[in-house]
Amino acid sequence: MESRNPAFRGRAFEQRTGGAAYGAPGYGAPAYGRYGYSPAPPQAPPAATRPMTMDDVVVRGASTLLTLVITAALAWTLVPTRLAPAVLAVALIAEIGIWAFITFGRKANAPMVLAFAAVYGVAVGIISHVYNDLYHGVVFQAVIGTALAFGATLAVYALRIVRVTPGFSRFVVAAGLGLIGLMIVNALVHLFGGDDGIGIRDPSSPLAYIFSVAAILVGCFFLLLDFDSIEQGVRSGAPEKFAWYCAFGLVLSLVWIYLEMLRLLSYFTGRD
Length: 272
Prior knowledge:
mainly alpha, 8 helices
């Protein structure tokens, strides 16, 4: 199976899953005599890998999201204001490290994905607490907005209003990288003397509203890629462990949408 989600494509992932298409004969079992090896004595066949089901994705996705919510609530409640910047910095560094290990190492399993969700939750909890102190009630509104965006995107995918094609996937990845690039440029300009950066995070600039709306839409587009990967995986008999990759992708997309929703709603809410 060739997934259209870029997180699950490439030779590295194929090697992790045996180098053959899911459900293909000889999955993960190289023929004797390949690469110059002499025929080995007969051995017991490896245990069959159970194919992934939709229930696997639901259970692992819910477990991952629940872990994130719990650690976010704990960070909100337990991290003192004076320590929040330091804890946030550590959580972000750990989050990036685990994300890179899962993404580039192609090693999504329960410990890694749940650890990622836990440290991501700490960062989300601290950020949410700061926003809620400045704009009372905005966190609840952002959660509702994220849930509605998820439901609407799922309906769009189920009704095939938008079809996930290779061209669409390339567009979504390019758009995501472009948004991240603009965020980095904005941070650098702000760091070196520009109080408002390039205007994409300045509430007084129309660019800020356009940027946040575009970022939310791109987050929803990434959800479409996630849904397509899940559907292809179930249909093609992907191994059970692929459900952890799916849970990882879903949480990344949902938190992206939530954080941008939080930012956008804050523009319309007066400070307390």
